[in-house]
Amino acid sequence: MPTSSAEPFHLQVRAARRAAHWSQSELAARAGCRQSQISEFEAGVRGKVARETVVKLSELLGLEAPGETAGPSAAAIGARARCPNFECPSNLPYWVGGQLLFLPLGTAGSGTHCAICGEVLERACPHCGAPVLAPGGCCESCGSPLVEMPGGFASDPRAWAEAQRAAVVALRAALPRA
Ligand SMILES: [Zn+2]
Ligand SMILES: [Zn+2]
Q: What is the band of 69 on the pLDDT scale with cuts at 50, 70, 90?
């Protein structure tokens, strides 16, 4: 039973669970997780429930799991497109708290492929599968970075980020303004 509801997935879960007359404990038992996880998940607290549990919840409740399989519906609800290529100029690298993060600048376009580098655009978090709705470098659902540099790519990620950032800024300055 595919759903095209624009409601956040955690609210869909709560509504479907109530419709099935299951308590949070019953749903947790069926999904193989703890009641406290269901409670937090339904409240919109993310990152506590594994992707496989999210899929399990979807199956149990007859919902469409967010993520790769829900690409069209993620687009339908206005999820933000992001180029997964960390070297793409549509992603501005910055170094914060000892971690390399990428801020999607919104210049990748809104089609299926990146307007700059041609990579296939993503609209869901690669970690939890939630559609990405807010701007920013991290998933608003699970807090994970949305774009990441592969481990071992740069011996000094901070220096790489500074050089790349300067290059991206220079490139943007050179582009005609929309
Ligand atoms: Zn790109
Ligand atoms: Zn996430």
A: very low
Closest ligand to residue 106's CA: 1
Q: Which residue intervals of the chain bear CATH 1.10.260.40? A: 9-65
**143 CA distance to ligand 2 centroid (A)?**
6
Q: Which CATH class is domain 9-65?
A: mainly alpha
| Model pLDDT for residues 136-155, shown as the tens digit of each residue | 899 989 999 999 999 899 99
- 170 alpha carbon – ligand 2 mean position (Å): 31
Amino acid at the residue 143: G
Closest ligand, as measured to the CA of 46: 2
Q: Provide CB contacts within 8 A for 91, sequence distance 6+.
A: 82, 83, 85, 102, 103, 104, 105, 147, 168
